[in-house]
Specification:
about 450 residues, mainly alpha, two-stranded antiparallel ribbon, 20 helices, 2 strands, about 0% strand
């Protein structure tokens, strides 16, 4: 079964999806005149918007609802991005595809951030009011924008399976593997504890998820980032060599670990997409919950999330692994490679630190992943029974499955689900992208000063 899934993944990724992602990213970059590069300053400024920013333009009924701030929406989306993809995913990409996979992760992030801008702007445009917050995402803009109900339901089913079920098994598998290597803990016991804690938070609702993510994400990302930056500075003399290895391997000029250039590109793009989710259709679900005065604001903030994830956190992990030189060790892969790399730099405390970091990274992803499924189940049905069953499977059954399953099976299932989900979303945003382009022009005219507008034009 695992071999069959691998063959299907290679066919989809090797011949269809990589080209589609790159072409879409280039198209959106061109049509927005490089919005992800020229408006970085505005992205950062928008993070300071309060939970009530822009509420003056809301109806009295909307003002009485709870509101998710721009920063909370950013934190929840980054919570799902910054996880196993940054520690285990990067290591897997390098181990299988070679150092050049890092270059292709950068490429998919740089052009994919424009795709992230489009999909999250559309998420805001087509959002609708729910009983305690706003809801939205690709299922909503497919139904309301494309008027294609069957495709909207297909997306809703795919994202529920991909994030709420498949991805949560990956997160659990990585946590349990890290804990077993660092402390010798039984994966079944760790999985059981994870399930209980996840279910407690999940049954608390969206606002508890937002509050937990707003605390965990900055702490875990900043702490990990500072540690690895220190390691890089301590080995600064090796950085020119590391960059040379990345670029020569990326174009097949140096065939070392990872084999052919096709494997390098495929693994770089797959792991890059798993990590930053640009074009996957996930971030628009939480982007739609934010209370902002213009849809473009969340588009910009979610584009910043792609940069934060791949260009900062993923690059830190990649540099640390390449500095250690352990990426060519056959028996090391996934989180074990990252732990071994840190162990070689700071000693025996390394695996312990990574175990704790992956616990925070991946656990925040579990609760964030769950919300994507919840939002789309609410799109399909109002049944509390269905939602309760989903909660039990997402936070309980699949977390335990990940604890027991092999690394290969959970990642292969995740890649297959990710491919189908992304293909569905790309069809939608290509068709609806013109509305995001118009909204960007409107934002430049109506929300920026004349001087800033002229400069960004």
């Amino acid at each position: 079964m695992n071999e069959l899934i691998t063959q299907i993944n290679d066919a989809i990724w090797g011949y269809v999806l990589i080209a589609a992602l790159i072409i879409c990213g280039i198209w959106f970059t061109w049509k927005t005149r490089g919005v992800q590069f020229r408006m970085v300053g505005e992205m950062i400024r928008l993070l300071t918007d309060s939970a009530t920013s822009g509420t003056d333009s809301l109806s009295d009924k909307d003002k009485n609802h709870k509101h998710i701030s721009s920063f909370q929406a950013f934190a929840v989306s980054v919570a799902t991005r910054v996880g196993t993809g940054n520690l285990a995913g990067v290591a897997t990409a390098i181990a299988i595809g070679g150092p050049g996979a890092v270059f292709w992760m950068w490429v998919i992030a740089l052009i994919g951030s424009a795709t992230a801008f489009i999909e999250s702007t559309l998420g805001q445009l087509y959002k609708q009011r729910h009983k305690d917050s706003f809801v939205g995402g690709p299922a909503y803009y497919i139904e309301k924008g494309l008027h294609c109900k069957w495709m909207a339901y297909l997306f809703a089913v795919l994202i529920t399976i991909t994030f709420g079920l498949s991805y949560n098994s990956i997160q659990s598998n990585t946590i349990c593997g890290a804990m077993q290597k660092a402390f010798g803990w039984n994966p079944l016991i760790v999985g059981g504890i994870l399930s209980v804690v996840a279910l407690i938070i999940i049954f608390g609702g969206l606002h508890r998820i937002a509050n937990v993510s707003a605390v965990l994400v900055p702490l875990m990302a900043i702490g990990y980032f500072i540690l690895v930056v220190v390691i890089i500075i301590m080995n600064i003399q090796l950085i020119p060599h590391v960059m040379k290895v990345i670029f020569t391997s990326a174009f097949g000029l140096e065939q070392g670990v990872g084999g052919a250039i096709g494997a390098t590109i495929m693994n770089g793009v797959k792991r890059g997409l798993f990590s930053n989710e640009a074009g996957e259709g996930s971030a628009p679900n939480v982007a739609a919950t934010a209370t902002v005065s213009h849809p473009v604001k969340q588009g910009l903030i979610q584009a910043l999330g792609v940069f934060t994830d791949t260009l900062l956190v993923c690059s830190c992990t990649a540099f640390m692994i390449l500095i250690s030189g352990l990426y060519s060790t056959p028996e090391l892969n996934g989180i074990a490679l990252t732990q071994a790399a840190l162990n070689s730099e700071i000693g025996a405390i390394g695996p312990t630190f990574i175990a704790i970091a992956i616990l925070l990274f991946a656990f925040s992803s579990i609760i964030g992943n769950y919300y994507y499924g919840e939002a789309n189940i609410r799109f399909m049905t109002s049944s509390n029974v269905v939602l309760t069953v989903y909660r039990l499977f997402s936070g309980g059954v699949l977390v335990m499955f990940g604890a027991m399953a092999s690394l290969e099976i959970v990642w292969n299932l995740g890649d297959l689900c990710m491919a189908l989900l992304t293909a569905c979303n790309l069809v939608a945003i290509i068709s609806l992208g013109k509305y995001a382009f118009r909204l960007l022009d409107d934002f430049l005219v109506s929300h920026l000063s004349d001087g800033a507008h002229a400069q960004l034009r």
